[in-house]
Amino acid sequence: MASTAEEAAALVETSKCLAAYQAVKDHLRPEYTRIGIGSGSTVVYVVNAIAELGPSVTSKMAFYPTGSQSEELIEAAGLNLHYISKLPAGQQLDVAFDGADEVDDDMNLIKGGGACLWQEKIVAASAKRFVCVADFRKLSGRLGTAWKKGIPIEVLPMAAPRVLDELRRMGSLNPRIRPGLPGKAGAIVTDNGMWIIDAPFAPLLLLKDTESGTQAGNGADGLWTVDALADKLIKLPGVAEIGLFYGNNGLEVASGAQKPVAAYFGMADGTVQIKTPGT
Ligand SMILES: O=C[C@H](O)[C@H](O)[C@H](O)COP(=O)(O)O
C-alpha cells in the first residue's frame, strides 16, 4: 500500500507501463503495416514499447495519430507518421492502441478526459482490432462510478449553451464547459477547434441491467443505459462527437467498432488484467 502521494503516483505510472508493454507484446504482430496510436499518458508507454522493437520491425510500419499529442509522440520516437485522411478507400488499420478514462463490464468506454475523443473514435473505428490500455483506476462495473467528471462531449462552440440546456433536460447533473488549462483564458479548444462539455450522469446501466424489466434505462427515471444515452447524445444538434465508445466489439474483420477487442489493465499488485468481450 502506497504511503505517500508520490508513491501512489508512481504505482499508477508503473501500472500504465505494464499494461502498455503487455498489450503491444500481445497485439503488435511484425507483419502489421498500419498502426493507430491514441492519446493520453498511457499511450506514451505504448509508443515506448513499439519503439524498443527497433527499426527492423517498425520501419515497415505506418503509424496513424489521433491528434497533436500522438503525432508528436510518433515523430519523437522516430516512427513513420501517416494520416488517417490518406488511408486508401476500403483499407483498415491492422490494430489501434488507445487509453480510456473508464471501462465498464461490457467494455464500453469513457474517453476524452484529455480533450481527445473525435479523432480517437475515427481511428479506433478504422482498425480491425482496437486495444485499450489503462491502469487499475479505470476498471469499473458501470461508467460514471469511477470517472465522476462527466462524459466528455465535443461541441461546436456556438451550440454549447443549447447543448447544456438539452443535457440538463436529460438529467445530467451540472454539465459544464471545460475550462482551458491554467494561463489559457476561456474554454479548452480541441484539436478540431471545438469545445468540450463534461456531462455527469448517474452511473450508466448496461443493456443486461434492463432485461429484468425493473429499470427502463431510457432516462425516464434519471437512469440511462450506455447505448440509449449515447444514441441520444450523438443526435443533439451541435454535438460533434461523444466520449462514449459503445456498440459492438471489433472482432477481427468487423469495421466501425468503437469498443475494444481487449482491454489491458495494469494492476496495483504488478499483474496485468486482460478483459475481453464476455469476461
Ligand atoms: O482525451 C484523452 C483520451 O481519451 C485518453 O485516451 C484518455 O483520457 C485516457 O488518458 P490517460 O491514459 O492519460 O489516462
Explain what you see.
It is an enzyme of class 5 (isomerase). Its EC number is 5.3.1.6. It holds the Pfam family Rib_5-P_isom_A. Belongs to the ribose 5-phosphate isomerase family. 26% of the residues lie in helices and 18% in strands. The chain is of the alpha/beta class and 279 residues long. Strand 4 and strand 5 (109-110) form a beta hairpin. Ribose-5-phosphate (R5P) is lined by residues 38-42, 98-101, 111-117, 120.
Going across the major beta sheet, what is the strand order?
2-1-3-6-12-13
Mean pLDDT score? 94
N-C termini distance = 27 Å
Fraction of helical residues: 25-40%
Backbone shape? globular
| CATH architecture descriptor text of the largest domain | 3-Layer(aba) Sandwich
* Count of all domains: 2
Query: Strand-and-helix sequence, N→C?
Result: HEHHEHEEEHEEHEEHEEEE
For the CA atoms, what is the radius of gyration? 18 Å
- List bound small molecules: ribose-5-phosphate
GO cellular component, one term: cytoplasm
Enzyme class: isomerase
Family: Belongs to the ribose 5-phosphate isomerase family.
Pfam families: Rib_5-P_isom_A
Task: Produce the secondary structure layout.
Layout lengths: L4 H23 L6 E4 L3 H11 L3 H4 L3 E4 L2 H9 L18 E4 L3 E2 L5 E2 L7 H8 L4 E6 L15 E5 L4 H10 L6 E2 L17 E5 L26 H8 L5 E4 L1 E2 L16 E5 L5 E4 L4
Parallel strand pairs: 1-2, 1-3, 3-6, 6-12
Antiparallel strand pairs: 4-5, 5-11, 7-9, 7-10, 8-9, 12-13
Helix pairs in contact: 1-2
The structure holds ribose-5-phosphate.
Ribose-5-phosphate (R5P) binds next to helix 2.
